[in-house]
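stage 2 :: seqdesign
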């Protein structure tokens, strides 16, 4: 038998297993909240893993709120231009520094270890930011925070995807991304509550509170199991099977669903090991592969280049550019926008498995392009006539409309190419 025929037979077997899993899932009509073990798993997954993206939302958004806190502006001499850009980018710089090392930790020591390491690093960064006495110390703290969040997100996202019951997986992974906005709401609410304090604690307290979600992760991570997929990759098959039986079959050792799922995991790992023998040049060896690589790379870039950074990190500057300079008003708009983002984000998460990814992606970016054009036009009108309050209000309204479209950009489209 040729290798091509053998490979085809393996692929056909995998397709049959996937179809069997889908068939068995369709027969399971019991909701997750009526399954004791699964309910307990999800209860602990929320603070231990789902909350990691909440940490990212808080850490990534708190600087936006601090720009509307006068004591922070005074303490750091009202940073603007390149300096403010570096202070904002420091979080992302830290993430870039950590990226090469994250896969090693994740695959060598496990998903839980990655979350623990990331949360510990974030805790160190939060303490340093709280105690910052100059811009250099503040920058170092932001870099450390960025390094930690990459470890935590990598481990947590895989834990959620690999532990969640397939029936709820798409919704839970969608909620993982959108929980970023829950963290942003907390950050906006805290800075709204402290902006009027006439002391440095008006910005040190929001910095210190970055510790809380990481502390919860360090506590609850010990109450959830390791990823079955990771355990299989380390030849710890019995442990992986026991986890699947407990949480995906409520202890039923004869469950045909667990048998099919376990087989699928083992075959996927085996095929991935086989895939490592394929040279990297295969990625660009054909037009089809080059197209897929290009789209997969661009999706990640475009999702971060869609204007979310402009609103997430420079909202107070954007508002000031259209005459909204009152610190309280800026903080209130920031809080309102964060709440709005959570509503639209959660809605988008529930729509993910109902609408085609490609349609979501194209609709989202087409709509955002139009909204940005209108935003630019309204800003230009206000720049020419500072008494035109209608143009200023239009800018604020367009920011809210823009955020309706962003949760539907379907960045996971690359998984379906």
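stage 2 :: out
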């Amino acid at each position: 038998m040729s290798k091509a025929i053998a490979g085809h037979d393996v692929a056909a077997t995998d397709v049959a297993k996937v179809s069997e899993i889908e068939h068995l899932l369709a027969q399971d009509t019991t909701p997750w909240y009526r399954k004791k073990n699964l309910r307990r798993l999800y209860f602990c997954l929320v603070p231990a893993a789902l909350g990691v993206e909440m940490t990212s939302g808080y850490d990534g958004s708190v600087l936006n709120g601090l720009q509307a806190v006068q004591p922070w502006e005074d303490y750091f001499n009202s940073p603007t231009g390149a300096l403010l850009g570096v202070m904002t980018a420091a979080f992302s710089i830290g993430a870039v520094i950590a990226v090469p090392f994250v896969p090693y930790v994740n695959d060598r020591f496990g998903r839980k270890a990655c979350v623990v390491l990331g949360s510990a690093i974030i805790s160190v960064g939060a303490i340093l930011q709280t105690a910052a006495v100059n811009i250099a110390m503040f920058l170092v703290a932001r870099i450390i925070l960025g390094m930690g969040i990459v470890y935590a997100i990598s481990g947590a996202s895989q834990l959620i995807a690999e532990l969640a019951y397939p029936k709820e997986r798409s919704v839970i992974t969608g909620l993982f991304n959108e929980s970023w906005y829950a963290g942003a709401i907390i950050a906006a609410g805290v800075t709204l509550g402290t902006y009027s304090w006439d002391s440095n604690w008006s910005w040190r307290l929001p910095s210190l509170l970055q510790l809380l979600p990481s502390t919860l992760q360090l506590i609850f991570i010990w109450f959830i199991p390791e990823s079955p997929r990771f355990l299989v990759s380390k030849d710890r098959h019995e442990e992986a099977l026991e986890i699947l039986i407990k949480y995906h079959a409520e202890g039923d050792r004869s469950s045909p669903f667990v048998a099919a799922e376990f087989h699928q995991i083992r075959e996927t790992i085996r095929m991935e090991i086989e895939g490592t023998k394929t040279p990297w040049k295969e990625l660009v060896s054909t037009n089809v592969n080059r197209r897929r690589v290009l789209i997969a790379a661009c999706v990640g870039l475009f999702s971060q280049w869609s204007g979310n950074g402009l609103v997430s990190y420079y909202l107070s500057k954007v508002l000031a550019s259209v005459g909204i300079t009152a610190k309280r008003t800026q903080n209130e708009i920031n809080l309102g926008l964060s709440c709005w983002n959570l509503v639209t984000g959660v809605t988008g998460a529930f729509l993910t498995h109902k609408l085609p990814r490609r349609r979501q992606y194209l609709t989202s970016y087409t709509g955002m392009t139009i909204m940005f054009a209108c935003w630019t036009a309204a800003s230009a009108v206000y720049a020419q006539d500072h008494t035109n309050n209608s143009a200023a209000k239009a800018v604020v309204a367009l920011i809210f409309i823009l955020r309706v479209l962003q949760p539907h950009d379907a960045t996971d489209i690359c998984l379906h190419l």
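stage 3 :: structure notes
- The two ends are 30 Å apart (CA to CA).
- Residues 36-66 form the longest helix (31 residues).
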